[in-house]
């Protein structure tokens, strides 16, 4: 058995029930092949660097499990043809590391009004004094 992790990006418009169904199917496939399901971390919705299928966000899930290479190949095949799976990436899991979700995205900075230059105030003060 080899330790694997899959970072799974699902369509953010999928209902929660459908997302759970995809994860449940992956878990059942691993366990049916005598693998071990280690954990499932929900990273939540994240903004994408570029649109995929006209979607600007994705719902991320990190799946950790132990299985043989044939099970991983079958799971990757199923994820490739499953509607609602935008992308997935399977890699060997490094023991002792526990990757967490990336830090939350910073809030967009509100557009600030640009202060008027100091000379504009001086001009407005002198024009009112002359009158």
Describe this structure in words.
Helix 1 packs antiparallel against helix 2. A four-stranded antiparallel sheet has the order 2-3-1-4. Strand 2 and strand 3 form a beta hairpin. It has one domain: Alpha-Beta Plaits, CATH 3.30.70. It is built from three helices and four strands, in the order E-H-E-E-H-E-H. The radius of gyration is 25 Å and the shape is elongated. With 131 residues, it is an alpha+beta fold. The longest helix is centred in the N-terminal third of the chain and has 17 residues. Helix content is 33%, strand content 36%.
How would you briefly describe this protein structure?
This protein is an alpha+beta fold and 131 residues long. It has a four-stranded antiparallel beta sheet.
């Amino acid at each position: 058995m080899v330790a694997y992790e899959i970072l799974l990006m699902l369509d953010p418009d999928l209902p929660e029930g459908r997302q759970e169904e995809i994860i449940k199917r992956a878990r059942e496939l691993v366990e049916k092949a005598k693998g071990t399901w280690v954990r499932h971390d929900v990273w939540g919705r994240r903004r994408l660097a570029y649109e995929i299928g006209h979607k600007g966000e994705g719902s991320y899930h990190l799946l950790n499990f132990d299985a043989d290479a044939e099970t991983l190949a079958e799971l990757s095949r199923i994820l490739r043809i499953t509607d609602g799976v935008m992308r997935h990436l399977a890699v060997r899991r490094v023991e002792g590391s526990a990757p967490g979700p990336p830090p939350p995205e910073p809030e967009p900075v509100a557009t600030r009004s640009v202060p008027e230059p100091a000379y504009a105030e001086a001009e407005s003060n002198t024009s009112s004094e002359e009158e």
